[in-house]
Description:
Blueprint: E1 12-16, H1 20-27, H2 31-50, E2 57-64, H3 72-89, H4 93-97, E3 100-105, H5 113-126, E4 132-140, H6 142-154, H7 165-169, E5 184-187, E6 206-209, H8 219-231
Parallel strand pairs: 1-2, 1-5, 2-4, 3-4, 5-6
Amino acid sequence: MLAREFVNLPRHIAVIPDGNRRYARKAGLDLHAAYKLGVEKIRSFLRWVLEFRGIKCVTVFALSTENLNRSRLELEILFRVFRKEIERAVEDPLIHESRVRVRFIGNRSLLPESLASAMRALESATGGYSDYYLTVAMGYGGRDEIVRCVRRILAGEVKLRELTEDAFFACLDTREIPHPEPDIIIRTGGERRLSNFLLYQSAYSELVFLDKLWPEVEREDLIYVIREYSRRQRRFGR
């Protein structure tokens, strides 16, 4: 078992899978083919993570609020690829045999109803599972999440006089994840920034940046990341 090779395993890995469009140009692919490879890589990444057993939560930044400013044609391609892969995941043995609960976070009002409907169906099909958690950020922005959380507070879901850090966590989109704070965030594609991803939750997350484009990532890259994480000493500001 891979977990035996490492002294310390993260409980929650978050991923910013950057580089799909650059990979399309590099490989001479159209956007549909590149995005399809990118979404399929999420499944491969989940399969590799499950080999470790002790890593219980994976969160993937699939579509940001900023991405929604792309051209109509590109968004239609993205929405179609996401919907088809989500519909396929409803019957995916990897999900059901490993008892992976799939959840989507973000502002669903920004998404087409056909995509939102597919998301709800997958959440319903996996809602009884609790062995592992796959969270997909779709139509998500960290600032937007915080604003929506504050609106819930102002609506009375949390009394202001009772507001604590734990209570604020309970307002965030990640509130149903057992370990809402990522132990480590991986970003591919060579960029060195969070790009509005899990801003509140990532206060003490370890960061690892890979120069590979997302469709190029392989199992060995995850092993490298886990090995790098196991060498670090997390002090949480102490």
